[in-house]
Amino acid sequence: MRNGAGAGNLARVAEPFDAGEKPPSRLHVFEHRPGDWWAECGICETWRTASNPTQRRAWNEIHAHFRSDHAARERLGVVCIAWSELDGAEGYYLGYWDGGSDLMVIEEMPNTPSIDVALEWARSRADRIQVRPSWDPAHSYSAGSTPRPGMPPLTARQ
Questions:
Q1: Is 51 left (phi over 0), alpha (psi -120 to 50) or beta?
Q2: Is 8 a domain residue?
Q3: Which member of 121, 137, 141, 146 lies 3.0 to 4.6 Å from 154 by CB, making a disulfide possible if both were Cys?
Q4: CA–CA distance, 99 with 126 (Å, rounded to integer)
């Protein structure tokens, strides 16, 4: 669930799927027998996990598989980065890599005070990057190799 206000809207709880969030249609979790949860990947049609004691454990397993085997290779989604500065404390960039469409948040970015570090993290994961920089945190800029519609490109710092 996204939470907070302002730049904090980009913060994300590190759960595979939030309540009511739709998982990818080709990832399946089901109870094979009472207390025996299985997960299957319909993308590669070869990956499967069995004997998970809870549904959450099965979702965690398939989420980890999806992140490592599918998301990174296909450079899906968009990375969103924002500057956060609360109550006079030192500011930092926070962000996440979102799979887009009916996928999921794939990974949260480690907080960093450096836009260069944040952009390096983002560019290693996706071609579409949206940034709200420290010098203009109220506006979004496109910083990836694939422009974000309706956003100006991120240029030199002010």
A1: left
A2: no
A3: 141
A4: 9
* H and E: helices and strands count for the chain: 3, 8
* Residue 90 near residue 14, CB atoms below 8 Å: no
Structure tokens at 87: 């109550």
pLDDT in tens, 71-117: 666 677 889 999 998 877 889 999 988 876 555 677 889 999 999 99
Lookup: tokens for 67: 């992140």
- Residue 55 sits in which domain range? 27-74
What's the pLDDT score for residue 68? 73
Per the document, the length of the chain is: 158
Check whether residue 136 and residue 86 sit in a common domain: yes
CA-wise closest residue to 114 among 83, 137, 88, 73: 83
Do the beta carbons of residue 119 and residue 131 sit within 8 Å?
Answer: yes
Residues 6+ apart with CB under 8 A from 109: 79, 81, 93, 94, 95, 96, 97, 118, 121, 122
Q: What is the rounded distance in angstroms from the CA atom of residue 75 to the CA atom of residue 83? A: 23
Asked whether residue 46 is assigned to any structural domain, the reply reads yes
The letter for the amino acid at 68 is: S
CA distance linking residue 50 with residue 60, whole number of Å: 12
